[in-house]
Amino acid sequence: LEKSLKLSKKDTNVYFKLENQQRTGSYKIRGVLSKITGLTKEELNKGIVAISSGNHGAATSYVAGLLGIKNASVYMPQTTPRAKVDKIQYYGAQAVKIGKNYDEAREKGLEKIKDRGSVYIDSCSDGLVIAGQGTIALEILEEAPHIDTILVPIGGGGLITGISIGAKAINPQIKVIGLQTAACPAMIASLRDNKFYEMYPTEESICDALVGGVGEIPFKMARDTIDDIIAVDEVDIREAVKYLLLEESIIAEPAGAIGLAAIRKNPHLFRGKNVAVIVTGGNIDKELLLDIINK
Questions:
Q1: Which of 7-21, 90-104, 151-165, 182-196 bottoms out in mean pLDDT, i.e. has the lowest?
Q2: pLDDT in tens, 150-171
Q3: CA angle (176, 279, 192) in 5-degree steps
Q4: Phi, psi at residue 209, to the nearest 5°?
Q5: In percent, how much of the chain has pLDDT > 70?
């Protein structure tokens, strides 16, 4: 947990939880380790499969190699950033592009998993995975028990579910605020319409980790776990990536920078607060990073 001296003011303190420094470059390794170490030998012998926009796949590939699992595959959309594909392949899993976007990749991937009989490592709607992600909250509040607000990006929703369960068990008064790109506000729409949007259309987005529908468990628990959700414009996310690099010396992918974008756009919402911002990952393509900096 790192305090931002530039963003913290007399009545506001901002801290970054730097999950971009995790092995594989994102928080996803927590949930994957929690899930895979809970499998039986018989299940592991069937092989494991993940469907991912990148970070979950890299974590699955890494843990498979760590535990000596030979049969590991990751299905992903064709839009998956090169940096994330390279990590998946580097750690040993088979990387298969099968859809034009995440929702299509998920739909086709689930069909293939059913045919193969492999164990599916769900990225967001699995109790063990969610529990693993929740360890972030335990670490935050152990180090900084005065934190009263946590900002969490929402893709499928597993991360915010785990963090909220862990944080509210320690401090029921803590506020857990979700963040979604305005290009794909799936959880916002799900709560507004009281409808489980397992698939959700997206506009063009640099936040590959935050597009697509939500998970069933996160949707069912959302009203108990999420205090509010802020939709953040893509242009503000771009500026946040740039700010983190140039002002804080933090390399963050767009999904990991969305919390900072929300604070910079809405500083009045966080006045007088002690805020922890989850920087979920740092796996950003060089070309995108250069484009953001140069613009």
A1: 90-104
A2: 999 999 999 999 999 999 999 9
A3: 40
A4: -80, -5
A5: 100
Cα(72)–Cα(179) distance, rounded to whole angstroms? 31
191, pLDDT greater than 90:
yes
Sheet holding 175-181, edge to edge: 2-3, 13-18, 274-279, 149-153, 175-181, 228-232
By CB atoms closer than 10 A (0-12, 13-18, 19+), residue 85 is middle
Whole-number percent of the chain with pLDDT over 90: 85
Assess contact for 213 and 105: CB atoms under 8 A.
no
Give the C-alpha separation, 126 to 221, whole Å: 12
Structure tokens at 66: 């760590």
Asked whether the CA dihedral 235, 79, 231, 22 is positive or negative, the reply is negative
Residues 276/153, Cβ–Cβ less than 8 Å: no
